[in-house]
RNA methyltransferase (Fodinicurvata halophila), 182 residues
Amino acid sequence: MRGYFGIGVERISKSMNLGSLQRSANAFGASFFFTVAANLKQREVRLSDTSSAAEHLPVYHFPDIEALTLPRHCRLVGVELTDDAIDLPSFQHPVAAAYVLGPERGSLSPEMQARCDVVVKIPTEFCINVALAGALVMYDRVRVMGRFPPRPASSLVRPDPLEPHVHGAQKIRSKTPDSSSS
């Protein structure tokens, strides 16, 4: 899969949810994890993060939205159930993205939503658990941006395997025009 992604949460307070989300981030191959204005107990985070994600990917803790720093060209994608958000199944994931989810029993703050480049929503009737919502977003990213064979017409048929990737011939690009062609 090309590109990279990170995932994080704003104002989360349930350590077990954060640990579950970190574990999922590790499983889906996130490049980094972050929190903004979190109120957590690290011991409880470790209880639910059985993969020890913090040992395998960088975890950044920002005290507030103003301190949130992302890599250059990384798009901030809010995940929130709002009327004007893009439905996740119709969303084109950026190559470089950081997904941010709101707290339990709350929403992304208006300031965070304003900071986002785009806001997407999972098409559900009501809000779902933050760890589950994050896992669904990461699954959708991997499904859309990964290299998988198309689904077969029947649910009883296995998909045809993909052809192996073949690299083309080496291309050498120069910054100056070839002087021998004049």
About this structure: The helical segments are 15-27, 42-48, 110-115, 130-145. The mean pLDDT is 88. Strands lie at 4-10, 32-36, 59-62, 75-79, 86-87, 96-101, 118-121. DSSP finds four helices and seven strands in the chain.
